[in-house]
Amino acid sequence: MRARIIVESCFGNTQAIAQALAEGLRAAGASAEVVAAADAGALAEDTELVVLAAPTHNLALPSPASRAQAVQRGGQAPAAGVREWIATAQPLPNARLVTVDTVVPGMFSGSAAKDASRKAKARGWRAERGPSFLMAGDHLRDGEVERARQLGAAWAAGR
C-alpha cells in the first residue's frame, strides 16, 4: 500500500500524530510519506491512502485568521494548509481519503476532521472522517501517539 499523510500543524502536536500514523503504516509493510499541506502538491496516481491531519481551530479546519492567532500564541503556521490543499487537489478515484485531527475535548470543540471530510466529499473524494486525537492543554494526552501508531498499522492491514 502507498500512503501519503498530508499534515498541517502549528505547535507540533498534529505533526506528531502524522509521524506516528506513518510509523504504524510502515511497521505493517506500507509505504508512507508525511508531507506538509503547503508543500503537498499533486498525488501519485498509485496512492491508495491519503490521510489529512489538521488541528481544530474555531470548531473547524484552520483558516488564515486562525493561523495568525496561532502565530501570536507562539506557534508556527504555514501560509496554506489542509483547507487550501482540499480546494485545489484533484481527487483520485481509487484512493481512500481519511481525515484526522487534534482537538481539545469539550462541548464546543468542533472537529477539523469533520470539516475536512465534508469539504473533500464536496470536491469528489471518497472521504471518511477518522478519529480525533485528544489534547490536554497544549500537549497530546498520554497514549494518543501510540493510538495513532496502532491506527496506521490497522489501515495497512486493510481495516
Number of strands: 6
CATH architecture level-2 label: 3-Layer(aba) Sandwich
Distance between the termini: 13 Å
The portion of residues forming beta strands comes to 15-25%
Count the domains.
1
Structural class of the secondary elements? alpha/beta
* CATH level 1 class label: Alpha Beta
The CATH superfamily is Flavodoxin domain
The helix fraction, in percent, is 25-40%
| Major beta sheet, strand line-up | 2-1-3-4-5-6
Radius of gyration: 14 Å
Describe this structure in a few short sentences.
The chain is α/β, with parallel strands linked by helices. It is 35% helix and 25% strand. It has helices at 13-27, 64-72, 82-88, 112-122, 144-156; strands at residues 2-7, 31-36, 49-55, 96-103, 127-136, 139-140.
How is this structure best described in words?
It contains 5 helices and 6 strands, in the order βαββααβαββα. The longest helix is centred in the first third of the chain and has 15 residues, at 13-27. It has a single domain (2-156), classed as Flavodoxin domain (Rossmann fold), CATH 3.40.50. The mean pLDDT is 95. It is α/β, with parallel strands linked by helices and 159 residues long. α1 packs parallel to α5. It is globular, with a radius of gyration of 14 Å. The protein has helices at residues 13-27, 64-72, 82-88, 112-122, 144-156; strands at residues 2-7, 31-36, 49-55, 96-103, 127-136, 139-140. A 6-stranded mixed β-sheet has the order 2-1-3-4-5-6, sandwiched between helices.
